[in-house]
Amino acid sequence: MIPDPIIQEIKPNIFVVRDDHLAGGTKRCYADQLIRGHNEVVYASPAYGGAQIAIAHSAKEQQVCATIFVAKRKKPHARTKEAHAAGAKIVQVPNGYLSNVKAKAKAYCEATGAHLLPFGLETETAFEAIADRARFVASAVGDLDELWSVAGSGVLTRGLQRGFKVKKTYAVQVGRKLSKRDVGNAHILVCPQAFEDDAKHPPPFPSCSNYDAKAYEPFIRIGTGKRLLWNVAR
Fold it and tell me: What's the CA gap between 21 and 2, in Å, rounded?
């Protein structure tokens, strides 16, 4: 059972959802459901991706084999190491452009019958699980002027928009260029830092250094009114 979100009021009317307390972060609230009933699940992950950690923890808890395909590096990324420590099997792919990593993961599933999880875990299950989590938070904090999150695939911000009624939503673009289809009604703010770089102005709580942490500075600097930042993972 995934625990309810922890909500911290860091300043009057300025809230943060602290899913960094959850092993694997917010993605655990739907990774558990996507894994259930399978003997082996497979995921093609960017080296810096957080889904690999959520999948590994979910699989370990449910006694499912998790196999993570990732680009080969001289030194595996810390998140890949964490996924491995949680029990995932890691397959490093030479010439590891993401398209090649995805192709190798798909071929492995076709050969073994393992279940291939969609990139970004983008499913209706994910959207509804995020929305349910958002509704819990909304009932606790009440109406908001602004809702903030980072966005890579946009799954999080679209799910949050289902659960919150808010005047304005911001999605901080970290990584690939986002479209309106990715972020729904959110206003896109582009983080100028490279995806792999750590945030220059990290928050005063545990946050994914190259991802969620990059939303904190604009959230504090240009955010107005009663607002909330969704912190996905540590």
Answer: 11
Which residue is associated with the tokens 């452009």?
97
- What is the pTM (predicted TM-score) of this model? 0.91
Bridge partners (DSSP) listed for residue 7: 17
Contacts of residue 56, defined as CB under 8 A and 6 or more positions apart, other chains included, come to 24, 66, 68, 82, 83, 84, 86, 87, 88
Neighbours of 186 (CB within 10 A): 24
Could you give the domains of the chain?
7-25+123-231 (3.40.50.1100), 28-121 (3.40.50.1100)
Query: Rounded CA gap, 165 and 145, in Å?
Result: 9
- CB-count exposure of residue 207 (10 Å: 0-12, 13-18, 19+): buried
pLDDT per position as a tens digit, 65-92: 999 999 999 999 899 999 999 999 999 9
Give the DSSP H or E segment for 232. Answer: none
Strand extents, DSSP E, 138-211: 144-151, 166-173, 187-190
